[in-house]
C-alpha cells in the first residue's frame, strides 16, 4: 500500500489546523511515525530518523520555507529508489515498478539544467524527489522538493 497526499486545493485543513488558502504561508515542521519497512517522503530532506519500539521509526524532516499548506507532500510506501548526483535528486517507485524510473532519472536533470540556463536562476531547493505512485489521483502533483505522479 502507498499513502500519498493530495491537499490541493483545500485538503490540508482536513489533516491539521491551518489557514489553507493560497495567500497564506507557513513554515512546516513535519514528523511522521511509521513502520520501518516504509519509506517516508516529503518536501524537505530528512533531518533525523529515530528508532521506536514495535518495528516503528520516527522520521523528522527539516523545516520548510514559508509555503502554502496545500503544497505539503506526504508519501509513505514500500519503495525502491535510484539517485543521481545532479541537485540531490532521488526517484522512487514500488519495487515491481522500478522500470518506470529510468526515463524520469534521465530527463529530470536535463530539464532542470535547461530551466536554470533559460532563467539564469540556479535550482535552489535542497532536494528533488520524483515518486511514482500507481493510480495516483489527478495524475500528478508538482510540489517543492517532491513530485508525485502515476
From TrEMBL:
Single Gene Ontology MF annotation: metalloaminopeptidase activity
GO (cellular component) term, any one: extracellular space
Domain called Aminopeptidase N-like N-terminal: residue spans: 2-70
Superkingdom classification of source: Eukaryota
InterPro entries, per the entry: Aminopeptidase_N-like_N, Aminopeptidase_N-like_N_sf, Peptidase_M1, Peptidase_M1_aminopeptidases
GO BP annotations listed: peptide catabolic process; proteolysis
Protein name: Aminopeptidase N-like N-terminal domain-containing protein
Organism of derivation: Bracon brevicornis
Lineage: Eukaryota, Metazoa, Ecdysozoa, Arthropoda, Hexapoda
Amino acid at each position: 500500500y502507498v499513502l500519498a497526499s493530495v491537499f490541493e486545493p483545500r485538503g490540508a485543513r482536513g489533516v491539521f489546523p491551518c489557514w489553507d488558502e493560497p495567500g497564506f504561508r507557513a513554515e512546516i515542521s513535519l514528523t511522521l511515525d511509521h513502520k520501518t519497512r516504509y519509506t517516508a517522503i516529503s518536501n524537505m530532506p530528512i533531518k533525523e530518523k529515530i528508532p521506536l519500539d514495535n518495528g516503528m521509526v520516527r522520521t523528522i524532516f527539516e523545516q520548510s520555507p514559508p509555503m502554502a499548506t496545500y503544497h505539503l507532500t506526504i508519501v509513505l510506501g514500500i519503495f525502491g529508489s535510484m539517485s543521481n548526483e545532479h541537485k540531490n535528486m532521488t526517484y522512487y517507485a514500488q519495487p515491481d515498478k522500478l522500470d518506470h524510473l529510468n526515463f524520469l532519472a534521465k530527463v529530470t536533470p536535463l530539464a532542470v539544467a535547461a530551466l536554470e540556463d533559460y532563467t539564469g536562476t540556479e535550482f535552489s531547493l535542497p532536494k528533488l524527489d520524483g515518486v511514482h505512485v500507481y493510480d495516483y489521483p489527478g495524475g500528478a502533483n508538482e510540489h517543492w522538493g517532491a513530485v508525485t505522479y502515476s
